[in-house]
Amino acid sequence: MLDFHLRKALHTAAGPRTLDVALALAPGELVAISGPSGAGKTTLLRLLAGLDRPDGGFVRAGGEVWYDQAARQWLPPQRRPLGFVFQDYALFPNMTVRENLAFAAAGQPGAGPLVAELLALMELTELAPRRPGALSGGQQQRVALARALARRPRLLLLDEPLAALDQPTRLRLQAALAAVHQQYQLTTILISHDPAEITRLAHRVVELDLGEVRRVGPPAAPPTPATVAGRVLAVLPGGACGCSCPVGPR
Amino acid sequence: MAFDLTPDYWETLRLTLALATCTAGLLLLLGIPLAYALAHGRGPLKPLLEAVVGLPLVLPPTVIGFYLLLAFSDGTALGRFLINTLGLSLNFTFAGILVGSLVYSLPFMVQPLQAGFQNLPRSLTEAAYTLGKSRRTTLWRVLLPNMKPALLSGTVLAFAHTLGEFGVVLMIGGNLPGRTRVASIAIYDEQQSLRYPQANAYALTLLAVAFVILVALFYVTKRDASRRLL
Lengths: 250, 230
Hints:
The complex is a heterodimer of chains A (about 250) and B (about 230).
Chain A (H helix, E strand, L loop, with lengths): L1 E11 L2 E11 L4 E5 L6 H9 L6 E6 L2 E5 L4 E2 L7 E4 L11 H9 L5 H11 L15 H13 L5 E4 L8 H18 L2 E5 L3 H7 L2 E6 L2 E6 L7 H11 L4 H5 L6
Parallel strand pairs in A: 3-9, 3-10, 7-8, 8-9
Antiparallel strand pairs in A: 1-2, 1-4, 4-5, 5-6, 10-11
Helix pairs in contact in A: 2-3, 2-4, 3-4, 4-5, 5-7
Chain B lengths: L6 H34 L5 H13 L2 H12 L4 H9 L8 H26 L2 H9 L4 H9 L4 H16 L3 H7 L9 H10 L3 H34 L1
Helix pairs in contact in B: 1-5, 1-8, 2-5, 3-5, 3-9, 5-8, 5-9, 6-7, 8-11, 10-11
């Protein structure tokens, strides 16, 4: 699904370094990226999304070339079908929750039902008429995730989406993420510092340090689909979502 | 002090308000793309462009008026082009003082707008891009709606600053009642003729209008700031 090799100069606390990462992701795979700050994790996501220009390499996604230095190809971020969840959520303050999602879904067939479905999936229906300024951090996070999905992306990039949240909210959102990943089978890259979170959600983990890959491999205790589903049911209030979510890829 | 409202008073006031309204409206249209370019540009020309936009803040208005007067006259290539090709004779006309006002009040519109663009988190623009939105859609649907206080400040300051314009209008427009005579010039004219009640009418009006505008601006921006926190 996603195959890339990216190079970019980094300015780290230890002086100038080069971010140099090559990775291939299978369709539906969830890869976690961890590492100390300044390792180049966010830069890597930004390069994949087309928000920054790499110094060299290539990005291929689903048979499409997004970037290729040798062939001088470059797809602007608008034309890369991906969902990006920013660390600060970046919700549009002038729009309500529903409008944020509708703006993201605009121009696609079935935008209305998709927005309603995402609101229900992320338990946002009650909050739909509110503006982001009137929401808690966890609620904003759910809106950000729902909005990223509203474009029907093929790739989901999550930049430390749960870092700023308290532990109970974190656990609920990890469950929501697992549910979303199960339902839409999205190829996902998740930046995370939390070993428990990585173990719970990821198929593989990439450890970055100073721009280089230190280790690629399974998380400490690799989850099987059964345990992921089990944990979703265990963590959600009343196990409600696990039962009501339509199952299977779309 | 006495206060005298003559027919001239109403005519001058109407002209003054027309000039300020046209200036603020046109500057809003010109200022948005200019401020956007300045806020996002990185080229070597950016400081130069910023300096040009900011010049009216530090130049004596008579300098601007003097060069515009020359530029509009048939002694220059630009002036001949305006007069002979476009049929635009700008000196001593309303259109002429409008152009002068646009130049003179430009920084009062562009600088708040530029600050407004720069104060928006970069991630708002990037989020819109990753959702597939074009630059134009991002500007209209995301950026401008989230910088209403800056839009309001720029428009109000350009309006109020044009009300208080003197040197530029006097150089380009002179003092033609009903055509180029605005309130600030009328005050000087009446005072020179020792008609203090008439001068006072203009002066008191300008003072009241400027004060009410600024109070309204601060009231609205404060309300907007507190509403954002809800």
